[in-house]
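User: I'm curious whether this sequence folds into something compact or stays loose and floppy. Could you predict its structure so I can see for myself?
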Amino acid sequence: MGTEHFDIVIIGSGAGGGTMARALASTGLRILVIERGRWVPRHADNWDPGVVWMEQRYRAKERWLKSDSDDFQPNTHYGVGGNTKFWGSVLYRLRSEDFEGTTHVDGNSPAWPIRYRDLEPYYDRAEAMYHVHGKAGVDPTDPPRSAFPYPPVSHTVGMERMLDRIRARGLHPSYLPLGLIRPGETNGCTLCDKCNSFPCMIGAKSDAETCGIEPARQSSADVEVREGTFARRLLTDASGTRVVAVDVVSDDQEGRIEADLFVVSCGAVNSAALLLRSNVANSSGLVGRNYMAHVATMFSAYRWDDVDAGPHKFQKTIAINDYYRANGHRPYPLGHIQSQGTIHPEMVWGGAPPLLKLGLKIVVGTFPKSLKHWTDHSIQWLTMSEDLPHPDNRVTLQGDRIRLDYYPSNVRAHRELNTILTKLLRALGFTWIFPLSFGLGNTTHQCGTLVFGEDRRTSVLDPWCRSHDVENLFVVDASFFPSSAAVNPGLTIVAQALRVADHIKDTDLK
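Assistant: Here's the prediction. I'll summarize afterward.
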């Protein structure tokens, strides 16, 4: 492959890298985005639950080590657009208090080096760029904000009935903020039942390819995307304070790419692994430490005889944040609740652990007929509680393999939230309720491995996501999070990417 030179190299094309590519495309500089995966073709298989969940065609095939020396297959995807191709496109702003230090039942989450007001204008831009639909002022935890750029996605008739019954119990449900392109319109999102965890066959989901990479390429011939290219190692100059090149492998061919500025956006685990392989940016000793993932549980709630039970096609529209904050009755937060997309029998059989499969087999019979009755008459809900940073929760390398040591924190609060949701679902008439907690396999909301801050002794990156040690190295993905909060991290990655891109244009490119 030889050696090439670009002005800017972006490693990774997900929420951080894809957004950075679009935000920097207007500079007129030669920008190369390298992505270890390949373009995800639009094909009928995109919406086939058997292909996506049982065959797991799109999921990364590698296996990461864990603390007991066993290994596991992470829930992650490599391809242009990264994990955003498979996300449910719930795009929340962090709440104002998420930027402050917060006391939890099992410990504390630290304050961020920036505040909500610093990110607020970039949240506005991020919501416009990623077509976020919602309604301001309904959610009791809404931070100060302008109106959403797009109206909320309407609830189905059955979910609207569900909403009324939830309100009747004194709660304050709100619309989920959803990134969808022209929902319900001609040539737009069809509000199908194959959104959450499926790549969009018609390009109507707000992923980083659709909203970042493609607009960047269309606006500038100087933006190139190179698929199937793995970044093996960053190389620095003799001083160690500047990255001069990245060694890559593409189709078993080795090459070297030089640049004036590097942006790493591989995801919290793989970005930390790249820096560790490169032995750069680690004067603090914190690279890979303080890994976090939300403490999350999926609930499948079934009832036989009520239209409210399902199927609803697009049912991912309701949020409940009444338990997000501490209050006079409970001096610590619990977390967030949201309805989830429709499930299919193949999703249960392909994604559930063995014990849950056995339980479902006993209760509903063998796949597929009886299980389909279950999935057609159930609503799925997700609880998320904040995972607290701990230095022993970390990414390391064992030879060429990634090792992830992780023990969930804040579990007591999460159990309390799960109890509350279980009681609510029973009060709404659901007769069978199956919870499924994800544990180590929940790598979809990974964050915290390259935390940002003012003090180089206690952080890896500065508040602009520039390495304290390496002047031309930025890391823009959820690895910069000092805390995980308890809502989906995607929009915050996008907003910070826009903020960092402005900073680069104002300081590095003048």
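Summary: Residues 319 and 338 are 4 Å apart (CA to CA). The first helix runs from residue 15 to 24.
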